[in-house]
Amino acid sequence: MERAAVIVAIDGPSGTGKSSTSKAVAAQLGLSYLDTGAQYRAITWWMVNNGIDTDDPTAIAAVAGKPEIVSGTDPSAPGISVDGTDVAGPIRTQEVTSKVSAVSAVPEVRARITELQRSIAAAAENGIVVEGRDIGTTVLPDADLKIFLTASPEARAARRSGELKGADLHTTREALLKRDAADSSRKTSPLAKAGDAVEVDTSDLTLQQVIECVVTLVEEKQAGK
Ligand SMILES: Nc1ncnc2c1ncn2[C@@H]1O[C@H](COP(=O)(O)OP(=O)(O)OP(=O)(O)O)[C@@H](O)[C@H]1O
Ligand SMILES: Nc1ccn([C@@H]2O[C@H](COP(=O)(O)O)[C@@H](O)[C@H]2O)c(=O)n1
């Protein structure tokens, strides 16, 4: 039986497991996958690389339309490029991470990236899992299923410092909370749970348990329950 294309929005703060869960769910169900954080990181990388002051919203707004960002949607190898350069590695540096919230708060940047995200979702014939901060509230308010992942700051910091090969837990926790605060308090399209999103607290769940939970929610939606 052919399944209807399903649009799944997965939002939540940093380190709650959005990317790991979204990629695995998309791969398991044969859906496309879009990492919207990577797009904001890519435009931030371009600003830094082109000498734009990332503390100057007017300067950022003036050039927000310039970089050409291309996002891959294969969950096993998503990939991202800016003006033809593969930036999958460079967008994960500490410098980009520390500047991305300021760049992504600029309305002209959000308008540009939101339009790109909607066109990618509309082109996904078999359906798509889109992860970010404002997917359920702003980018795809008519998504078939909205999930909001949460986890305690302690769990998130432990996960991130594991990734960063034993980085100091306290410093990692403070950096996560600072980025969440900036993302939640910006005027345009802040990080927020949509009213009709299902909240999943992942603090005490393994990644596999979270994936199974989300796969079940998607399958129920596809079955029309
Ligand atoms: N339930 C879980 N239990 C343990 N570790 C997890 C769990 N979910 C994710 N992780 C690990 O936590 C780290 C962060 O996960 P991930 O990158 O998926 O989060 P994220 O919400 O996408 O973060 P960000 O928004 O900062 O990109 C990864 O190393 C991942 O393997
Ligand atoms: N829908 C989104 C997604 C991300 N952002 C901004 O990008 C930053 C990086 O996101 P990661 O998921 O790669 O950590 C994030 O801190 C936000 O500033 C966004 O604004 N909207």
TrEMBL record:
Single GO biological process annotation from the record: pyrimidine nucleotide metabolic process
Binding site for ATP: G12, P13, S14, G15, T16, G17, K18, S19, S20
GO cellular component: cytosol
Lineage: Bacteria, Bacillati, Actinomycetota, Actinomycetes, Kitasatosporales
InterPro entries named in the record: Cytidylate_kin, Cytidylate_kinase_dom, P-loop_NTPase
EC assignment: 2.7.4.25
Gene (UniProt): cmk
Region (Disordered): 175-195
Key word Isomerase present: no
Record-linked NCBIfam families: cmk (TIGR00017)
A GO term, aspect molecular function: ATP binding
Root EC class: transferase
Cellular compartments annotated: Cytoplasm
Sorted UniProt keywords: ATP-binding, Cytoplasm, Kinase, Nucleotide-binding, Transferase
Record-stated family: Belongs to the cytidylate kinase family. Type 1 subfamily.
Basic and acidic residues composition bias: residue spans: 175-186
Residues annotated as domain Cytidylate kinase: 8-219
Reaction catalysed by this enzyme: CMP + ATP = CDP + ADP; dCMP + ATP = dCDP + ADP
Record-given protein name: Cytidylate kinase
